Amino acid sequence: MKATQITIDAAIRNADALLRMEGMHPSTEVLDECRRVLSGEISHEQYIAKLREKFMETEHVAVQS
């Protein structure tokens, strides 16, 4: 299990570095959610549903402003 965690952490660090080279700055929350998907804690579908929910909340607040 320890070797798997190191591989997931390395993948997250690599993805973070690649995004930053492209000028994007992923939040800690996004990286943590990606770690949860890679570790099998949540499914990809659950992650996408959570992103959609968060996006809809953000859009709802923007429309009300």
Short structural description:
The protein is mainly α and 65 residues long. It is 80% helix and 0% strand.
Describe this structure in words.
The chain is mainly α. The protein has a single domain (2-64), classed as Helicase, Ruva Protein, domain 3 (Orthogonal Bundle). It is 80% helix and 0% strand. It contains three helices and no strands. The protein has helices spanning 2-21, 28-38, 44-64. Helix 1 (2-21) crosses helix 2. The longest helix has 21 residues, at 44-64.
What is the secondary structure topology, with strand pairs?
Elements: H1 2-21, H2 28-38, H3 44-64
Helix pairs in contact: 1-2
Q: How much of the sequence is in beta strands?
A: under 5%
Helix fraction bin:
over 70%
Q: What's the number of extended β-strand segments?
A: 0
The CATH architecture classification is: Orthogonal Bundle
Taken together, the total number of domains comes to 1
Structural class assignment: mainly alpha
State the name of the first-level CATH class.
Mainly Alpha
Mean pLDDT: 87
The largest sheet is: none
Give the C-alpha Rg: 14 Å
Poorly predicted tracts of residues: none
Oligomer: single chain
